Amino acid sequence: MTRAYHHLIACSCFFGSGFLALAYEICWIRKASLVFGAEMFALSTVLAVFFAGLALGSYAFGRYSRQTTRPLRTYAVLEIVLGGVVMLSPLGFTLADSIYEQFYPQVGDSFVLLSLTRFILVAVLLLAPAILMGGTLPLFCRQYVLSERRIVKSVGFLYGLNTLGAAAGCAASGFFLIPRVGVDTTLYVGGVLNILIGAIIWWLPLKAAAPSGTSAGPERRSLRQTHSAAPLPSRRSRTVLYFLFFMSGFVALGSEILWTRFLSLLMHESAYTYTMTLTVILMGIVLGSMLTSGFFDRLRQRVFAFGAIQIAIGIVSLATLMMPESMWSGRLDPDYIGSQLRNVMLVLLVPAVLSGMSFPLAVRIVVNQPAESGVGVGKMTAINTCGGIAGSLAIGFLVLPQLGLQLTLMLITGTSLVIGFAAWFLLEHALRARIRVGLAIAAASLWLAIPQLTRTRLPGDFLAESGQLVEFHEGLRSCMAVLRKPRKRMLEIDRMWQGSNRKNHQIMAAHVPMLLHPDPKKIVVVGMGVGQTASRFLIYPIEQLDCIEIESGLMPLVKRHFESDWMDDQRVQFVIEDGRNFLTHTDATYDVISIEVGQVFRPSAASFYTAEFYRRARQRLNPNGLLCQFVPIASFDVDEFRTVIRTFLDAFPQSVLWYNRSELLLLGTTADSLSLSEERLRLLEDNDVLRRDLQYAYWNGPAHFLNRKEVFLAGFLAGPVGLGELADGARVYRDDRPYLEYTTWRAKKNAKLEIIDLIQAHKDPIQSLVDAPLESPLQPMIESIRNQNLRDIVADATARTAKTLQGHGKEREAIALLHQALDWNNQNSYIVFKLGAALGKQGEFDAAINLFRQAIEIGSEFEVEIIAKRAEIYYRWGKYELAVSDFETAIELGPDYAPAYNNFAWLLAVCPDVNYRDAEKAIRYATRACELDDWQNYESLDTLAAAYGASGAYADAARWQTEAVALAPETANVAELRSRLEHYELQRPYVGP
Length: 993
Hints:
993 residues; four-stranded antiparallel beta sheet; 38 helices
């Protein structure tokens, strides 16, 4: 083989070592999150140890590189040892899990001790392999950085090549290896490949050539004559540069925390999010280091360029994250990976490219001799990495939770500018001072101007998609927001619905297990939400209710905005902890475990559906104990649904499947059988509090209240026999291959209908659940309701699709889907109402009024909304008397329903029939609508302006119309609002000086 061929093999192996390093990192983060819980804590702990090891290895082997003429031989040894250590790491995590389980009961109450325990165990597992990985780049630099003319180019190429391998490894492990091959197999195969890379490199006959900078030969003399390189910095200058490079690492990793939090405002976080984020960052670094490093070898003002890059990073990051919310169009598509990747690239790519330019340039500033390249690269890598560790921990755990996203963004981008200014004024002396001052003033002015120009409020502007933002709180790992709609308040976490102040299906996750268990006393709920489930457990005579919630800021938020008396009950205690971590390691036992984990595609959520979790959770149950869990069938296709059932049955052979809209309930027991006793069933009649709470219907009125025996029993779908047949032949879902986290992220077209057909084919007779014979008339009623329950799941899914189409202006397609939804269940009053509203919008007034009447006859909690909408239709139809009557009824029934006041005020202000105009009353009702909307709804303010205009008070009308224009989003008809403002301005009387 030729020497060039040997070099090609060596560089290919170096690419491969970068590939494997990131694949290991992704796998280890996954393993750590399963052992220690809370992906955020596992991620931060693994990264801190990983980067610390890289820094130590880079520094140590950088210094060692001076002493060897065969650096690739040392590299080969590192790769072989690393391969062996990696192959042992799965066993190491198993041992760490056993040790952690022993310590957890003693340290679980202390966040500091728990974090310290995690850190020590992770350090024992991962510090050694990380040190070995850290030594690779300095050794390759010692081998291949040969010319003083090409130090930046050579370092940039090697850094970029290794980083390109890392990007490929990140993408391959996150998108393919973990979901399809499994975590442990990826580690075993990777370890073998590391050993193979080491063996190949060992046998390559390559020695490090004598660098050109080691002698004063012709090349060096020529260089001095033609290149005019900057002189070697003084010791003081080096110290300043080291500190600035430390801070640039601080900014880089701290910014990554910020970018991740910001991306959660643009798209739903999934198992792909971290992979996409890291891959784009690494690709940006590759582009920056490889495409520009050659230029820096010829550049004289390298320090100035380093400072300019830091300033550019700060300004670009600030400008990107402060872009107005309206400019991120199409950001909320959680099912399209292309849309998510686009957003990730928009946010991260340019800062990552700039960061990639920074590293080889900083190395070149301190390294003028090729022979010192290994030492210089090692030292600078270590310094930058230590800064990154400090930045990720400080920003993630201290600054961001305390200051919030916007202030943290200003702080970290401002720090980036300060780094650049310090480089210019402390290290750069070739450029005139006035030029540096002028550029610094310009950069600082631009940085200060960006927030003033965009007027973006982070994260508030991005949280009001589903309603009017009332309050938000930025926690350690998520952003929690309370939003308001008319007569309704909702809680969202990272823009995903978690509950509301209206009674909903979440209450059944408490009532069903409490009625199936003979005498439950100790309960644990994982995931609090707004307390719809947790509060219902307190209806029963229990002794203890533990609520496990990872975000400490959620409790005060819920207490301020939702029904919270239950939180002061002496039987309730809150535990701030990752739910899986708590249940798998605590020594407490319970009668009922309720898992309130939704959105299975979210990171770590699918880990509550694995065989390993169920095995550990079963150990936390007392005799006759029950575990209850949501099964959101919208997240699964048929095979995945069968896998979930099969895995649950593997741990709980005695199980039942219960209807609960599209979030079915799976309940399993440690007892020999699971049945509903006559005594527990009588509580529906005998317990007044329970009976009142179950005056709730999934999709109909009082005829289908759940406190009726036949309606409650109709929730039972299948028991052990039917579930066993349904899941026969399905595979068991395990921790090692978490493919559900990846597959449930995709849209499941027609999957609901297929799952419903599957359940329908495997229903068990209701008599198999109850321990006493049922009256003959009840059985056909129960069966009819059971069938209709299943049909309503499809009806509801169809109606939700119609709502999405309406949001995109496709009214006719939406109406067609709403008709299909009614074919599935014509007793769903909400769907009847929505079809009526859609037809009324199209001018089909007769059909709309008939559907409204039908919805009211069925019986609905939305009666106020229906009557108010019917009044709007009558107004548009010209039937003003009927409109006035309906508006008055709606206000009487719903005194807190702002749209009724607002629309009635509009009628009273501008009705074409002057007999129905009443400006004074219009002002009163419009004011009430504004009060209910906290004076933040531009439509209510527009109506108030119209009411004052009708009264002739044009100055007041102009004032309120100005407020309406200021609050109106870009999606509103702002031109029409401005036109009315101009009218009021023209009509107002002139007031002299």
